[in-house]
Amino acid sequence: MKVVQFTIPVSKENTIVVQENILPHYYNHLHRHREVQIEWVVEGSGILIAGNYMQRFEAGEVYIIGANQSHIFKNDEAYFDPEEKKQVHSVSIFFDPHQLSQNLFSLPEMAGIRKFVESLHNGFQIPAAASDAIKKIIFEVRENKDSQRVAAFITLMHLFSVTRDMKPLASSNSEQLISEVEGIRMDQIFQYLVTNYKQHISLTEISEVANLTPQAFCRYFKKHTDKTFVSFLNEVRVNEACKIILSGRFDSFSNISYQTGFDNVTNFNRVFKKTIGKSPGEYYKEFRDRLV
Fold first, then answer.
1. Distance in angstroms (rounded) separating the CA atoms of residues 215 and 290
2. Candidates 3.40.50.970, 3.40.50.1820, 1.10.10.60, 3.20.10.10; correct CATH number of 197-291?
3. Model confidence over 101-116: pLDDT tens digits?
4. Would you call 125 helix, strand, or coil by DSSP?
5. What is the pLDDT of residues 224-263, one digit of tens each?
6. How far is residue 90's CA from residue 210's CA, in Å, rounded to a whole number?
7. Is the pLDDT of residue 285 over 80?
8. Taking a C-beta distance cutoff of 8 angstroms, is the pair 31, 4 a contact?
9. What is the model's pTM?
10. 62: β partners
């Protein structure tokens, strides 16, 4: 079922909802909800698409998804293979920013937190330097109930509000205006690209998936992602290449280029450096040096 608008199960007794899930994989379609989502990826990996943002996500990372921000945590292919017996483990905290802004965040003492919440439209990735302290407080929010949960939540929001170097998950708010029909279409496009990135995908082919002419598709895709179809597809491929490089299980960069849909290694090297800011060899060396 391809839906965009989610309804988070919120009881009348709770304004802060905590969900802990251990599943074969994340929900596999682009979706959104009116609540802000704080996501601790305890176990799992894949590609996160949030608005016009995309990058790999790995176990141990923490993200904040803005209210009504379309997003998908797309797990790697292995998570959909029963023989691999892989799973994702996540702790999610949901809260309605509008509701809390009218009561809890309206207190004078909450000015710093209120300002932070107002900046959450595009979401954030929590920097690694702050993630351990933040995960400790997320654990406290999960474990506590009633007023103690609220107290731990306030501590968590304060910690967010003073954390520096958070990475925004999108560069514009335009995608938040997406309708449900458009959301279903964008989901179909994303699903096709992340499933078929290893093959050559022509503009005509992807336009047919979206039921648009090639010219209309280019305008439509640019409007909703602030990227061209080619640049988005290249990001998918480079993210998959990064996964292979970090695994260390490859014979050559030429082999990686063909595994991820590039027609030749020269083009792969050029696109990789443009996307990541360093060559595949430099990226691998940096990773290898961190392990030593």
1. 46
2. 1.10.10.60
3. 888 999 999 999 999 9
4. strand
5. 888 999 999 999 999 999 999 988 889 999 999 999 999 9
6. 32
7. yes
8. yes
9. 0.86
10. 40
CA 68, 23, 43: angle at the middle one, nearest 5? 85
Burial bucket for residue 58 (CB in 10 Å: 0-12, 13-18, 19+): middle
Q: Are strands 16-23 and 88-95 parallel, antiparallel or unpaired?
A: antiparallel
Q: What is the CATH number of domain 16-168?
A: 2.60.120.280
User: Residue 38: which H helix or E strand, with range?
Assistant: strand 36-43
CA–CA distance, 65 with 33 (Å, rounded to integer): 10
Mean pLDDT of the chain: 90
Extract the tokens encoding 230. 């080619």
268, 280 Cβ separation under 8 angstroms: yes
The secondary structure of 42-106 as a DSSP string is EE--EEEEETTEEEEE-TT-EEEEPTT--EEEEE-GGGG-GGG---EEEEEEEE-HHHHHHTGGG
142 CB-near residues (< 8 Å, 6+ apart): 18, 20, 91, 93
- Which residue is listed with tokens 């990541």? 276
